[in-house]
Specification:
With 440 residues, the protein is mainly β. It contains four helices and 28 strands.
Length: 440
């Protein structure tokens, strides 16, 4: 069912009230005086009117939906505000309270915060000053049947996991240190690196200082992670990832049945080495505890930050989709020649990236939120590697984005850590059965 598209959640900035009030639009008399059956609405007015009439739920509202040319509201991603108040670099989601609703954990203003669905009641998990996290992950670390939270501090590097207690709303979430030797930890990613059926944790060490300078590692969850011992660390990129690396990806890129890993380095004025501006993948050896082999992709790619594997054109080979989060736009590399296909060259600082089937048509799409452009967008794949851009939120910055079903309707929504927007929001995927087209 389509939800009430109130001003607070419609496309656009929360609280950005237009002259079209909800009350003025929700009545046949008023509507008859404003629009005729021949009316065709375009631009922002079309989205405003359509979303308001979808909220009304009236027969005339369905007529206006038809007039607007929106057969199933595919562009009306409603913005739901979880939190406002402080800069937020990371937000993750899972059912942390055991009530089958998806909750949110973020790190904002020096505090790690749990927001409980559906009304987003706030519970402070931790307010240790030095736990100022730039990225995070979530999974069942201690294998006790509930999700835990993992946070990463950039420099000096630190990775901590928080044990979800029996009563997550009133009891303390105990922190446990995973690693304090990696430095410049900009990205965390969960995935099964060694093929044992258990999740591991992947992290970069992107600073040019420390024992693992310009490197990256995967960390193996110990048998008893509550023992407060560092996790076994396996370096896969051994001092061959210079240039201020950022985020990671995992997948079998060469088809040998092993999990390969991806990484990107932004370069730019902060990169004193001048060795950044690249995307690369690391080929897993037979023993994943050994160093992987690096394959650098065609470049240079100024501002490179994110890259994820997936078959983008339906040829059975694993391609790579990437964003230049400290530069401009998105692209994809076609396996095996690694030909570059530009997807978008206009978005400024698309710092976050997800690759997933957002429209449930069986192929992989992409989503990002560009913090300089202040635009969130998803890119619709036609199954052959041709992408169409859909802007789904404006005046919204981001450092992090996650594709997750937030409302239990079996499609993937988008959770955004709003960085300079100082918020956490989620955008509701409107993929629904087509509405009837009513004419008169």
């Amino acid at each position: 069912m389509l939800r009430r598209a109130a001003v607070e959640t419609r496309l656009g900035r929360a609280g950005d009230v237009s002259p079209l009030s909800h009350g003025a639009l929700c009545g046949p008399r008023q509507a008859a005086g404003r629009f005729s059956a021949a009316t065709r609405l375009t631009g922002p007015l079309r989205q405003e009117v359509c979303s308001r009439w979808l909220a009304c739920g009236t027969t005339l509202g369905l007529v206006l939906v038809s007039l607007c040319g929106v057969s199933h509201a595919e562009d009306l991603w409603l913005k739901h505000v979880v939190y406002t108040g402080a800069r937020t670099n990371v937000a993750v989601a899972a059912d942390y309270t055991g009530d089958v609703r998806v909750d949110v954990i973020c790190n904002s203003g020096g505090k790690t915060r749990l927001f409980v669905a559906p009304d987003w009641r706030e519970v402070i998990i931790d307010e240790t000053p030095e736990y100022n996290f730039i990225h995070g992950e979530t999974f069942d670390v201690d294998r006790d049947g509930d999700p835990d939270f993992i946070g990463a501090r950039y420099s000096p590097g630190l990775i901590v996991w928080f044990e979800r207690p029996a009563n997550p709303l009133t009891e303390r979430w105990v922190p446990h240190v995973i690693d304090d030797q990696l430095n410049g930890i900009h990205g965390l990613l969960k995935g099964d690196v060694d093929g044992d059926g258990q999740l591991d944790l992947i992290a970069n060490s992107g600073q040019p200082t420390g024992p693992f300078a310009n490197s990256a590692a995967w960390l193996e969850v110990p048998d008893d992670p509550r023992q407060d011992q560092p996790w076994p660390r396996h370096i896969f990129a051994d001092h061959d990832a210079p240039g201020l690396s950022h985020y990671l990806g995992i997948g079998d890129i060469n088809g040998d049945g092993r999990a390969d890993l991806t990484l990107a380095a932004k370069g730019g004025p902060q990169d004193e080495s001048g060795l950044g501006e690249w995307f690369a993948w690391w080929e897993a050896p037979e023993d994943p505890r050994q160093v992987f082999r690096k394959h650098e992709l065609p470049g240079p790619q100024p501002g490179a930050t994110n890259m994820h594997p997936g078959d983008l054109n339906g040829d059975g080979k694993v391609d790579l989709l990437a964003s230049r989060g400290h530069g401009r736009g998105l692209l994809w590399y076609e396996n095996p020649s690694w030909t570059v296909h530009e997807i978008d060259d206009t978005l400024l600082s698309p710092h976050c990236l997800q690759v997933a089937d957002l429209d449930r048509d069986g192929d992989l799409d992409a989503a990002t939120c560009a913090y300089e452009s202040e635009l969130a967008a998803w890119f619709e794949n036609d199954g052959r590697g041709n992408f169409t851009k859909h802007i789904i939120a404006t005046q919204q910055a981001a450092y992090d984005i996650r594709a997750i079903d937030m409302d239990g309707d079996n499609d993937l929504d988008l959770l955004i850590a709003g960085q300079a927007s100082q918020n956490v929001v989620w955008l509701e995927n409107p993929r629904q059965p087509p509405l009837p087209r009513i004419f008169f």
